[in-house]
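Two entries, shown back to back:
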Amino acid sequence: MRVHALVADEATARRAAAGGATVVQLRLKGAPTSEVVAVGRALADLDAQLVVNDDVDAALELRVGVHLGQGDAGAERAREAGIPLGISVRTRREGAVAEFAGATYLGAGPVWATPSKPDANAPIGLEGLRDVCLSVSVPVVAIGGIDASNAADCIRAGAAGVAVIRAVAELERLREAVDAAL
């Protein structure tokens, strides 16, 4: 769970895995399930765990993990199918509810403001991240405004890993920072 790379295409997924991402999350917003499945199948040989964003049907067809936001449907189906289930959270309470719902890991944030998601909620900061980490027994992956300069701070706050979108280009440096903090 050390470094999640959120990607929108096959080429970026391959660069992310080559750069040290341990999890590649396909984030194909608005794409039909058939397109997500096609990209997922093309990545069958990827040297990283594959997770699909928001599309339980695609995840089930590919037999990979799925990551859901607060209020997204499908957690029960994912849990029943036995596939990895990530759920986005911002608070200790949301973390406890997500863990009870069967989440195998949590994505907590945004830790800091991020240009990748201008409509994101207010940042939770390192204290908010620490609070979520201390309230659950499943791994927590920090997301939001993370790069090589601050990834280690997230690990020291209790996160098992970090997730990035814009920092995919600097994955080797980011992975080194995370590994050193662990």
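entry 2 starts here
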Amino acid sequence: MSLKDKVAVVTGGGSGIGRACSIQLARDGASVAVWDLNAKNAAETVRSIQSAGGKAAAYVGDATDPSVISQTLDAIRAEFGPVLILVNNAGISHFKAFLDVTREDLERVYRINVFGPFLLTQAAVPDMLTAGWGRIIFISSSSAQTGTALQPHYASSKGGIISLSRSLAQAFADQRITVNNVSPGFIDTPMMRAAPVDSDVIAQTSPMKRAGLPEELAAAVSFLASTQASYVTGQTIGVNGGRVPS
């Protein structure tokens, strides 16, 4: 699936799912902008890509801040060219019972998980419209599909991402821009391992009895970014080990 001459932006590209997506898209031939708040992690992802012969550069900044979004996209365009693939992966998870969720908790989760991807996509879409081609991929969550008692704010924010991807798919379908979201189940990432739950026990609740690998999710992102996926838009692609059967 060649993405030669395509520029991809991956937010949260410094670790976990974002790192795997960045490496896979570079392997597919894209020039990858690895965007993360953690400069060290972003640099490590870039080194992995470059050591394999790929093209990548690290960008550090808050992908929810409109001025940072504008400045970073300008820097990416100056180095690589117009942004034609956008993977909105950056996000946070948070565990708290509904009655204990504070306004600050709610605003932080929604700012990072919803407002940031919304604003970044707004800023990147003009490149795709000019080119007459684009791929927008959101990372949602199977928690948005099943609900979760200890993550009502997180699950609802990811539900918003699913609705946003479907809305944008309809808005840009006739412009050769596809918009989809990949819905992970329990994926073995630093974020999952840091969660205040027993990840091994949770993974056992999956029909496959194991956590997924970031590379398995990156494979779905790779397909959705490809030219072969030109008639796939508005879809939620579950990479969840059977947790959500449809």
